[in-house]
Amino acid sequence: MPKKSWSLLLLPLLASCASVDQTGPLENLNWLLGEWRAERGNELVIESWREGTPHTFEGMSSTRSKAKKVVMSEESMRIVHMSGEVFFLAKVPGNELPVAFKMVSQGERRAVFENLKHDFPNRLIYHRLSMNTLRVDVQGKDGKGFSLRF
């Protein structure tokens, strides 16, 4: 068989091998996508996540007064896969630059992000408890912290 024929036979095989992995590196965190709402006293906390790219999730969090219906605080968030690792980036008022938390563990419906050098928080734990329930544990040093149940 001439050389040209062999290359024509190999092209479909190579193309199929190249397209075997169609998933993005954040696919195991898809359970986080969507809008989540939690009530905390007179406050309503809304956190929403969407896929920006296969390597990036983009999120927003806002805390609103239920009585006055005004936004009390907001932050933008991002989960990024880069250099073979996953990071949670939070841009909060008062900080010039985003704060980075490295993902240190991940389960089927759980992800732990950590930055032990940050003042507060040091650890963020996202845990999908059920189809409609998400818990976020915000932990600091010396037992400081809180949980939100969305």
Question: Short summary of the structure?
Answer:
This protein has 150 residues and is mainly beta. Helix content is 11%, strand content 54%.
Q: What does it look like?
A:
The protein is mainly beta. The protein is built from one helix and ten strands; from the N terminus they run αββββββββββ. Strands 1-2-3-4-5-6-7-8-9-10 form a ten-stranded antiparallel β-sheet, with no helix packed on it. β9 and β10 form a beta hairpin. The chain starts with a helix and ends with a strand. The N terminus is likely disordered.
The biggest beta sheet reads: 10 strands, antiparallel
Order of helices and strands: HEEEEEEEEEE
Number of helices: 1
Strand order of the largest sheet: 1-2-3-4-5-6-7-8-9-10
Descriptive terms for the model:
disordered N terminus, mainly beta, about 150 residues
SSE arrangement:
Layout: H1 3-18, E1 34-40, E2 43-53, E3 56-65, E4 71-82, E5 85-91, E6 99-107, E7 110-114, E8 123-130, E9 133-139, E10 145-149
Antiparallel strand pairs: 1-2, 2-3, 3-4, 4-5, 5-6, 6-7, 7-8, 8-9, 9-10
